């Protein structure tokens, strides 16, 4: 029997699986019971699905109760429409002769097959209609890099033939399935009208990708939004608003082009519709309750967004173009198309307050993505907005960067993680169909630049950017999707770039055919204005008056910008901290109070850290020993590294400071030392965080294992720290060298953020570091890189004052520390919050010292009145007789314990003094000078375990020379220069260790040498 059912294409599979899923469809007991239809045979077009449907139909003929009632109703209705003759039985319980003979068909079975063929056709449009949508405004490229047109969607004749339908079927009425809304209030349509409506929905200027989403409700929601007849209609007022926004978008670019024709500005020409698109997303979101929108975007169109979306004063933008004006703010500043902005205003469409923040970012195009997400998460956290009903993010991307930058994928994979989700982001892709000069066919392997979004089931709406009404409708739906389902959504604005990569670039060198077409392309504003004038929505005079009005606004702002005497980068601050830098209107005192805490606070924290606050909670026996050890240390008034960290965090929580610790495996700690989250050994996923049970009114503590990402997660935590100064936000690398893959965030945001964007940030980076024979990959956190980027001057002799420490910290771009004791670690974390400003803090944390018997601190070093020691001087026998000391060794971190052990073994306690630098940058000039003068007859040695071309020596050496007036040398002791940071051979490691320790205590090693 040649059944048309066997020609159903494979695209029917997913919906068929839902319709046929057990228990909703139960074929009679002699037939298959399965939640999935049989698989199609190789080379077939869904034969497995269709044959299963045929089998279900014959099962219904035998017993109507064997199928779901919806199918029973359908088959009954089909039977009635077939109008059986007198020789046919109308009872479905009789097996037809054609079934028994295996040849021929009843009218009923033909009607069923035709209906199923039409359903398959509908589904084909829903799944693959975007492949034939008219998305390219230039009409020369395929947005999906594939000129192939699905054979079942080419022409009407081809469609009919593919589904074994005929032209005579075009005017037949067909029952519409529940998986389409093209009928509106009608349940049946002619096949001709069905095809017309499907093409209108799926094959015009909007291309929809959503059928891969595995949630039926969400698919239905999207279908309803786009398939329902008449949904994409706008009132005259809405059209006029859209036109006015297009006028502002295009005339702003024209104004800049006239005034500064030779300046780079990365204009929006060719995608001017992005401005009304973003405003529509914000309007719709505001209507649905959003009060704060945080945006991130690359440089193209940024000035236009600042002017017409954020609504920054135009004169502030224009004065950035004046080369004669000098910035009064400290720091280097940045080019105008990298700067950010924060602004609170009334949304004129909804008459509700809205706060808009555009995050500053560098030319590393997608680096801002996780930063925006982190800032959004923090704003939601501080507002108690767990569902994202008040705060949301919008990310604007370029097509080449969206497909090519790995951080996009990393950021998407944070989107649904409990401690990182922002409850949905609207992604807007400005699809220039070219990356700088690179053809998309050479820039990506995926059909669309947006395919990366499919990994998180985000719907993707492609839209022709030369159809403003289609763009506005798509953006409205995208905003509604985000605020309904709290999931990501992508709007792909398929447009073009009227000029080159920047205004000075000549694109005809590399894309001659494309740019010949672009030069002929009528601007979208003219096309849309002509359309509205033709339909009588506006008059030509009204249109010209709208243009003149905005031109006048720009000219007046330009005049005011000439009166600006000073550029203030502070006007471009994207994360203001009201009240933080001032107290009662006066600047904060530039001092840092003592960082110690009362002993009863330490004891209380130690008690909680060594207990399980929840009842009937079973912990691992190995963890029981750890908790007993903590209790024992608390009784003895000592703390190891983990307990000191616990006490630093806990004391800040008591003072109302939110603490957030993030990174791979931070809950337990890479080295199984932290255990901030306890897991019940008997109940799955039952956990306890004792740190949140310290005090009834404490601030919350968040500790969260991250995805296996450094770039994305560090960017996220940086954005989180950006939102508020009253939080200690820490990111810990699993091993210190893992920060390599987050170097972009470190270079572009952490190191330079304040200089470029006046952005204070107190993020803390915890980087496990130490040469312990474990190989080159997990030994060094590469301190030389951080020190090389430190901005203190090695040749400038400082002026010492009573507040020298704090003023040094205020002037630096970040703080670099390598603590040798738990007390130092405790104090430097607390100082991070008690300072009257915020600076990033880089801490090289230990590995072996976590359990080293000598690496413990007494409570006496952490109680009230104590504070962080930038330098820890010698306090043994050598300090009591400094005149007899022959060698003063300076060092930092773990190597101190190796040196002390070696000195003791050689009996040189009186002849060799050892001084530790706990803070390396900014360099403690004052304390180093004191130490050197304390031992006037001693040789000065810098000892490090890192190789000479790494570590700290290149940083400290010129600073020692400056502070000592080049009167005394500072000799290097350590490993020889090398390419890799450490050896992979344990024996080689020990030999090199012994060698440099021998040199450190060979008191004749440098005799006769000059410097």
Automatic annotation (TrEMBL):
Iron among keywords: no
Enzyme class at the top of the EC tree: oxidoreductase
EC number: 1.2.4.2
Chief localisation class: mitochondrion
Coiled coil, from the record: none
A Pfam family: OxoGdeHyase_C
Location in the cell: Mitochondrion matrix
Residue span of region Disordered: 25-47, 79-106
GO molecular function list: metal ion binding; oxoglutarate dehydrogenase (succinyl-transferring) activity; thiamine pyrophosphate binding
InterPro entries xref list: 2-oxogl_dehyd_N (IPR032106), 2oxoglutarate_DH_E1 (IPR011603), DH_E1 (IPR001017), KGD_C_sf (IPR042179), ODO-1/KGD_C (IPR031717), THDP-binding (IPR029061), Transketolase-like_Pyr-bd (IPR005475)
UniProt keyword Transmembrane, yes or no: no
Leader sequence segment: 1-16
Ranges for domain Transketolase-like pyrimidine-binding: 639-852
Any one biological process term the GO annotation gives: glycolytic process
Cofactor(s) this protein cannot do without: Mg(2+); thiamine diphosphate
Gene3D superfamilies in the cross-refs: 3.40.50.12470, 3.40.50.970, Multifunctional 2-oxoglutarate metabolism enzyme, C-terminal domain, TPP helical domain
Catalytic activity from the UniProt record: N(6)-[(R)-lipoyl]-L-lysyl-[protein] + 2-oxoglutarate + H(+) = N(6)-[(R)-S(8)-succinyldihydrolipoyl]-L-lysyl-[protein] + CO2
Family designation: Belongs to the alpha-ketoglutarate dehydrogenase family.
Subunit structure: The OGDHC complex comprises multiple copies of three catalytic enzyme components, the 2-oxoglutarate dehydrogenase (OGDH/E1), the dihydrolipoamide dehydrogenase (DLST/E2) and the dihydrolipoamide dehydrogenase (DLD/E3). OGDHL/E1-like isoenzyme may replace OGDH in the OGDHC complex in the brain. The presence of either ODGH/E1 or ODGHL/E1-like isoenzyme in the complex may depend on its tissular distribution.
Record-linked NCBIfam families: 2oxo_dh_E1, PRK09404.1, PRK12270.1
Function: 2-oxoglutarate dehydrogenase (E1-like) component of the 2-oxoglutarate dehydrogenase multienzyme complex (OGDHC) which mediates the decarboxylation of alpha-ketoglutarate in the tricarboxylic acid cycle. The OGDHC complex catalyzes the overall conversion of 2-oxoglutarate to succinyl-CoA and CO(2) while reducing NAD(+) to NADH. The OGDHC complex is mainly active in the mitochondrion. Involved in the inhibition of cell proliferation and in apoptosis.
PANTHER family linked: 2-OXOGLUTARATE DEHYDROGENASE, 2-OXOGLUTARATE DEHYDROGENASE-LIKE, MITOCHONDRIAL
Protein name according to UniProt: 2-oxoglutarate dehydrogenase-like, mitochondrial
């Amino acid at each position: 029997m040649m059944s048309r059912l066997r020609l159903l294409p494979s695209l029917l599979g997913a919906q068929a699986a839902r319709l046929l899923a057990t228990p909703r469809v139960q074929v009679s007991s002699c037939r298959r019971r399965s939640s999935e239809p049989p698989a199609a045979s190789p080379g077939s077009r869904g034969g497995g699905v269709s044959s299963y449907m045929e089998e279900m139909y014959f099962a219904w003929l035998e017993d109507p109760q064997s199928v779901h009632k919806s199918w029973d109703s359908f088959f009954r209705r089909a039977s009635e429409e077939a109008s059986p003759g007198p020789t046919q039985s109308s009872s479905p319980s009789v097996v037809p002769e054609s079934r028994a003979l295996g040849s021929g068909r009843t009218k009923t079975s033909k009607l069923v097959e035709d209906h199923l063929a039409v359903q398959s056709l509908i589904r084909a449009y829903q799944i693959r209609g975007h492949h034939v949508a008219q998305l390219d405004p230039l009409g020369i490229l395929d947005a999906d890099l594939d000129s192939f047109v699905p054979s079942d969607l080419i022409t009407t004749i081809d469609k009919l033939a593919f589904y074994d339908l005929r032209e005579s079927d075009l005017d037949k009425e067909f029952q519409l399935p529940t998986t389409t809304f093209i009928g509106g209030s009608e349940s049946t349509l002619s096949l001709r009208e069905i095809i017309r409506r499907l093409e209108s929905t799926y094959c015009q200027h909007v291309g929809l990708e959503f059928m891969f989403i595995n949630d039926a409700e969400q698919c239905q929601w999207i279908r309803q939004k786009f398939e329902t007849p008449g949904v994409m209609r706008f009132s005259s007022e809405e059209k006029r608003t859209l036109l006015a926004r297009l006028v502002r978008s295009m005339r702003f670019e024209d104004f800049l082009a006239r005034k500064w024709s030779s300046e780079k500005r990365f204009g929006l020409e060719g995608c001017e519709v992005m401005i009304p698109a973003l405003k529509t997303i914000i309007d719709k979101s505001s209507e649905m309750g959003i009060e704060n929108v945080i945006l991130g975007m690359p440089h193209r169109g940024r000035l236009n967004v600042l002017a017409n979306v954020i609504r920054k004063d135009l004169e502030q933008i224009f004065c950035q173009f004046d080369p004669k004006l000098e910035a009064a703010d400290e720091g280097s500043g940045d080019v105008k198309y990298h700067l950010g902005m924060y602004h609170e205003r009334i949304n004129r469409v909804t008459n509700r307050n809205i706060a808009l923040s555009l995050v500053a970012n560098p030319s590393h195009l997608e680096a801002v993505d996780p930063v925006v997400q982190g800032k959004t998460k923090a704003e939601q956290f501080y507002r108690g907005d767990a569902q994202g009903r008040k705060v949301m993010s919008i990310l604007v991307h370029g097509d080449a960067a969206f497909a090519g930058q790995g951080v996009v994928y990393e950021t998407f994979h944070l989107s649904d993680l409990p401690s990182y989700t922002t409850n949905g982001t609207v992604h807007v892709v400005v699809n220039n169909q070219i990356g700088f000069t690179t053809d998309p066919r050479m820039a990506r392997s995926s059909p669309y630049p947006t395919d990366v979004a499919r990994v998180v089931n985000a719907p993707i709406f492609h839209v022709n950017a030369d159809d403003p009404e289609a763009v506005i409708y798509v953006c409205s739906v995208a905003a509604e999707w985000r605020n309904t389902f709290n999931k990501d959504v992508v709007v792909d604005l398929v447009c073009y770039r009227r000029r080159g990569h920047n205004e000075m670039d000549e694109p005809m060198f590399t894309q001659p055919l494309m740019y010949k077409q672009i030069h002929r392309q009528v601007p979208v504003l003219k096309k849309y204005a002509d359309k509205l004038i033709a339909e009588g929505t506006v008059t030509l005079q009204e249109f010209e008056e709208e243009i003149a009005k905005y031109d006048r606004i720009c000219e007046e702002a330009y005049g005011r910008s000439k009166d600006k005497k000073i550029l203030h980068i502070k006007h471009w601050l994207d994360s203001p901290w009201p009240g933080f830098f001032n107290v009662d209107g006066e600047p904060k005192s530039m001092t840092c109070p003592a960082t110690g805490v009362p002993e009863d606070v330490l004891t209380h924290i130690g008690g909680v850290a060594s207990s399980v606050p929840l009842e009937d909670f079973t912990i691992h026996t190995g963890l029981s020993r750890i908790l007993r050890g903590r209790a024992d240390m608390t009784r003895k008034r000592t703390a190891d590294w983990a307990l000191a960290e616990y006490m630093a965090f806990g004391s800040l929580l008591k003072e109302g400071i939110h603490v957030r610790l993030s990174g791979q495996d931070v809950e337990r700690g890479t080295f199984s030392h932290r255990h901030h989250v306890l897991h019940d050994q008997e109940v799955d996923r039952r956990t306890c965080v004792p740190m949140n049970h310290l005090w009834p009114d404490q601030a919350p503590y968040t500790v969260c294992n991250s995805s296996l990402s450094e770039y994305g997660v560090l960017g996220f935590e940086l954005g989180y720290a950006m939102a508020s100064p009253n939080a200690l936000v820490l990111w810990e690398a699993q091993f210190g060298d893992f920060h390599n893959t987050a170097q972009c965030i470190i270079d572009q945001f952490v190191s330079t953020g304040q200089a470029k964007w006046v952005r204070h940030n107190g993020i803390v980076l915890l980087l496990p570091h130490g040469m312990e024979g474990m190989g080159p990959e997990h030994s060094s956190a590469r301190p030389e890189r951080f020190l090389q980027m430190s901005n203190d001057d090695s040749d400038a002799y400082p002026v010492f004052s009573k507040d020298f420490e704090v003023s040094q910290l205020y002037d630096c771009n970040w703080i670099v520390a390598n603590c040798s004791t738990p007390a130092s670690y405790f104090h430097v974390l607390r100082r991070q919050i008690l300072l009257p400003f915020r600076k990033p803090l880089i801490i090289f944390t230990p590995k072996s010292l976590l359990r080293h018997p000598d690496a413990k601190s007494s409570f006496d070093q952490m109680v009230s009145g104590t504070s962080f020691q930038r330098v820890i001087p010698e306090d043994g026998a050598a300090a009591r007789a400094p005149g007899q000391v022959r060698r003063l060794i300076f060092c930092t971190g773990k190597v101190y314990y190796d040196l002390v052990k070696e000195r003791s073994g050689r009996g040189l306690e009186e002849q060799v003094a050892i001084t530790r630098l706990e803070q390396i940058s900014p360099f403690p000039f004052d304390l180093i000078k004191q130490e050197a003068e304390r031992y006037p007859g001693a040789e000065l040695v810098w000892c490090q375990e890192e190789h000479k071309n790494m570590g700290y020596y290149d940083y400290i050496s010129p600073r020692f020379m400056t502070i000592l007036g080049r009167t005394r040398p500072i000799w290097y002791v350590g490993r020889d220069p090398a390419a890799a940071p450490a050896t992979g051979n344990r024996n080689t490691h020990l030999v090199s260790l012994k060698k440099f320790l021998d040199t450190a205590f060979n008191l004749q090693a440098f005799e006769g040498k000059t410097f």
